[in-house]
Design brief:
The protein has helices spanning 14-25, 32-42, 45-55, 62-73, 91-103, 118-132, 139-153, 156-162, 177-188, and strands at residues 4-8, 28-31, 82-85, 110-115, 166-170. By secondary structure, the chain is an alpha/beta fold. It binds adenosine monophosphate.
Length: 191
Amino acid sequence: MKNIIIFGAPGSGKGTYSEEIVKKYGMGHISTGDVLRGEIKAGTELGKIAKGFIDNGQLIPDELMIDILAATYDKFPAGQGVIFDGFPRTIPQAEALKKMLAERNHEMGVMVELIVAEDVLMARLLNRAIEQGRADDNEVTIKKRFDVYHNQTAPLAEWFEKEGMRHTFVWAEHPSKEAMLDAIFAYLDTI
Ligand code: AMP
């Protein structure tokens, strides 16, 4: 399977759909958020640095994130295909991903963009706060994460467009998890 970059705002379903894609196509999964939460739980130096940024709704600095990503990617067998969930989130991260994959003679693959209206996202994240108790799923931090997404991450969609990798799926057109997945799978079956 080709590499897949799953892209969208907080709460757009990146983690949920990644799990389904992994189940169907049997590829690797890198959630940078999960990697960072694991480091926090384990009480590592990296976790201590990451916690301040995450609790505040801010992005971890690019240099740090890029090193973490490369180290995590190299744990998967070469050529298996990996789904990148939550990375890249900035243009320098996207450039670094492109360089890292080129150095390994691997393709960038495709980008799957999830578009969901902000009121739906907010409702989902507040619900996740109750179900999963994530420290950054409170209304103040969620609003900061939306700002960070609009300012630093959303412009990346154009970057992927120029790379010819962008494929967009809109919740309003497929308003259920199953309908979104059908549309995403129908596309992924063709790559
Ligand atoms: P997520 O689980 O993808 O929503 O990520 C949770 C938090 O982890 C984000 O709000 C950031 O603070 C941090 N994070 C995850 N991925 C990245 C990344 N690629 N670059 C910078 N920070 C990240």
